Amino acid sequence: MPGAIDVSSVLRSGAEVGPVSMRPKIVTRDVNVFYGEKRALNDVSIDIPERAVTAFIGPSGCGKSTFLRCINRMNDTIPTARITGRIEIDGENIYAKDVDVVPLRARIGMVFQKPNPFAKSAYENVAYGPRIHGLARTRAELDEIVESSLRKAGLWDEVKDRLQQPGTSLSGGQQQRLCIARAVAVSPEVILMDEPCSALDPIATARIEELIDELRQNYTIVIVTHSMQQAARVSQRTAFFHLGNLVEQGPTEEIFTTPSDPRTQNYITGRIG
Amino acid sequence: MTDVAHQHGPRRIVSEVQVLRRRRRERIFVIFGLASTLIGLLVLLALLGNLVIDGVARLDWNFLTNFPSRRAAQAGILSAWVGSLLVILVTACIGAPLGVGAGIYLEEYSARNWLTNIIEVNVANLAAVPSIVYGLLALGLFVYGFGTGRSIFTAGLTLALLILPIVIVATREAIRSVPQTIREAALAIGATKGQVTKDHVLPAALPGVLTGVIIGLSRALGETAPLITIGALTFIAFLPAPPITSEFPFVSFEWLFDGFTVLPIQAFNWISRPGRDFHANAAAAGLVLLIMTLALNSIAIVLRYRLRKRLQW
Ligand SMILES: Nc1ncnc2c1ncn2[C@@H]1O[C@H](COP(=O)(O)OP(=O)(O)OP(=O)(O)O)[C@@H](O)[C@H]1O
Ligand SMILES: [Mg+2]
Questions:
Q1: What's the pLDDT at B69?
Q2: Are B182 and B304 found together in one domain?
Q3: Neighbouring C-alpha atoms within 13 Å toward the C-beta of B105
Q4: Domain check: are B66 and B46 in the same one?
């Protein structure tokens, strides 16, 4: 197949990955998003299993970020955005009237495309979340949360001697891991990642991918990526979006080897996108 | 191959001529820009030089510590500079929180609707209102309406209104320049809107906000017309009540309601008198005013530099 992207070398078989729990953490039904009059998502329904990595793939502008940002209600900050349908986390409708977005967002962490550390020290970057949520009663407890979060993000050894330096003075890859530590520090249940490696070099990317694989033991992870290899390497389930539609979803291995929809087939072999 | 070369050859020559012409135009523009900058600078220097020549001889300790007098050689600006300082203090205490608060509200909280649009247009218009109009408003509203008297408080209030649009516009611009990604980062870990504003947006916008406040204050420092309108004195031989007293509670706000004069009024008063001596006094007062303004602006520059260094994305 000319121009095909070969992901078979990085795909891992079911046995290698281990059993994937199918208890759905996030359930969405008929989610539509409108930006003003423009419809960006059409009736997206998907079950996202807990303690697994789900990858969203699809051509640019197909609505991956839009959908991701529905899950932590980040689209609430866009005045023109309107959403219909249901999104449930652990069976609870997060768009119900009485839901407070503040604790909700603490439960659902997010890592952005471009590393966006606060203009504060590395320590403060991680400590900020626990502090505003009152997760630590003493300085020692806070120190502990900061250290364990940085360890989980695989950054501790690199920054332990310069915790007081600005987070913005770290390298791009370190900044992104700092952002992951910041998200992890408030003990979320879900971590949403929107192209977390697109601003990073291959080595930093590999570090983050390793990290995602470790984090999956304890967190439900959803990752948007443009790299087919990355989706194949880190995810257990994959969902393919096209022009606002969720075209196909299933175990990553299946999506990449035996896609049922021709659009998926075309995309993963590099013919559209 | 040769065909392609033929097609491209002549076109490239044309573009080189164009580039040359563009370069020349650019150079002319640079010279023009430089000339206008220099002219502005020279005029400023000439003014300053004039002021220094006329006034520097009068600038001594006595000039700063004497009250005005009928005799030019003994007259000083004590009541004027103390008045200026106090009025500016009141202006800052009222104008800064109001302006910054309004800026934050308009930028971060207000819904985009017709009311906000009207407010926005009005803020922009307020910046263009002549200062004498503020004086007339203050005379009617504060002096006669609220009975705040021809006092330092009224003056501070009036100038606070005057600088409000400057502070609001500067605050909004500073807030707008804070990247959206920072807000999203904080929101995404469950910060409330208030926390995002207080902990991230405001610290990042602070250099710009402070610059706006200080630019506003230097403008207020030089204002004369509205203060004459509300009835600032031109000859005043006493200081306002001291802010610190020997009796409990040790602080007093009586000074707020004392009469006052300010440096530009004092200078104007002297320049309008006949006689070279008083004109020298006016120049010296002008110099002091200029030094105060420059000092304010240097504070702004230092603050901005310091804060910018701490904040980088
Ligand atoms: N704030 C917004 N206002 C209006 N339209 C928007 C907004 N954000 C996204 N859109 C539109 O919604 C559609 C989906 O955008 P989205 O950012 O979700 O795509 P994406 O799949 O994440 O693309 P990419 O891979 O390039 O990041 C696009 O057509 C886009 O133009
Ligand atoms: Mg996107």
A1: 77
A2: yes
A3: 11
A4: no
Taking the CA of residue B203 and the nearest CA in chain A, the distance in Å comes to 9
| B90/B141 same-domain check | yes
Q: What is the pLDDT of residues A238-256, one digit of tens each?
A: 999 999 999 999 999 999 9
Domain span holding position B79: 59-312
Are B63 and B207 in a shared domain? yes
CATH of the domain at B139: 1.10.3720.10
Q: Are residues B136 and B33 in the same domain?
A: no
The pTM for the full model equals 0.81
Task: Collapse the DSSP code of A47 into the 3-class scheme (helix H, G, I; strand E, B; otherwise coil) and give the result.
Answer: strand
Distance of CA B255 to the CA centre of its chain: 24
**Chain B interface mutation, best of A128, A180, A192, highest count of B Cβ atoms under 10 Å:** A128
Domain boundary pick from B36, B56, B76: B56
- For residue A125, give the chain B residue with the closest CA: B186
Domain count, chain B: 2
Sole residue written with tokens 């979320």: A188
Whether residue B81 sits in one domain with residue B112: yes
Spatial CA neighbour of B123 closest among B105, B148, B138, B137:
B105
What's the pLDDT at B12?
A: 61
* pLDDT per position as a tens digit, B211-257: 899 989 999 988 888 888 887 777 777 777 777 767 777 777 777 77
Residues B174 and B28 placed together within one structural domain of the fold: no
CB atoms < 10 A from the CB of A8, how many? 9
Report the pLDDT value the prediction gives residue A42, as an integer from 0 to 100.
Answer: 94
Nearest ligand for residue A41 CA: 1
Question: ipTM of the predicted structure?
Answer: 0.88
User: Closest residue of A to B307, CA-based?
Assistant: A119
Mutate to test the interface with B, among A132, A149, A176, A182 (most CBs of B within 10 A): A132
User: B113 CB near a chain A CB, below 8 Å?
Assistant: no
- Whether residues B39 and B63 fall in one domain: no
Q: Is A20 within 8 Å of A237 (Cβ atoms)?
A: yes
Domain end (from B41, B56, B71): B56
> A40: Cβ below 6 Å to ligand 1?
yes
Q: Is the backbone of residue A154 left (phi > 0), alpha (psi -120 to 50) or beta?
A: left
Nearest chain A residue (CA) to B184: A74
Q: Of the candidates B187, B200, B311, which has its C-beta nearest A74's C-beta?
A: B187
